[in-house]
Amino acid sequence: MLNSNMTKKEIEEFLSNKGDFVKIDHLTRFLKEKPPLDKRKFILEILSDIYESKRMYTESAKIHNNLAIASIALSQKRAHYIKEAELYIKAGRFGEVDEAIKKAISEANSREREEVHIIVKQMYHTQAEIYEKEGRSNHALKIYEKLLEMNITDFEREAIKNRLMPLYEKLGKLKQYFALKKE
Questions:
Q1: Are 42 and 54 in contact (CB under 8 A)?
Q2: Domain boundaries, the chain
């Protein structure tokens, strides 16, 4: 059983031969014992990785929010909020993405705010391309529509429209297809 006296290496060794759901059980029970902050962060990071590997993106995103709250350095807070946004993008929860972005921006100066916007746009693009490769056209369509709502350049807008038109046609959304073609 995990306890507060264990080192990080001992915790890793204890978990090494366990299945993912057994690890989750041990780690969540350990967190209820209110371990010291450094071990708490370490456990949360392990839990987040497990949840992400199991495609439980919402749970992993919630953990990154907790890690950001527990972090002192603004750069760490921002990094965790950006990771939270990425995981919510993968989960398709765009409202939560916007909230995570707002939190990341609140921890940034003007130059870093622009970087956050660029990173988030790239994460949306990447996830849309993954969905297209997997044949999940409706999911890709939603992401591209979300990108059109964002502050993007005219060049980016045209590129997104070019990606959207075949998706609209493929999904039988002819009204949207012709409206986009008119623009």
A1: no
A2: 110-183
Residues 24-71: pLDDT tens digits? 999 999 999 998 999 999 999 999 999 999 999 999 999 999 999 999
Residue 63, amino acid: I
Determine the topology of domain 110-183 in CATH. Answer: 1.25.40
The pair of three-digit structure tokens given for residue 118, joined into one six-digit string: 């660029």
Sign of CA dihedral 3, 7, 8, 12: negative
**Residues 140 and 132: beta-carbon distance below 8 Å:** yes
87: tokens are: 């995981």
Contact 44, 74 (CB under 8 A): no
Q: Which amino acid, residue 131? A: Y
Distances, alpha carbon 36 to alpha carbons 39, 68, 175, 182, in Å = 6, 16, 57, 60
pTM: 0.87
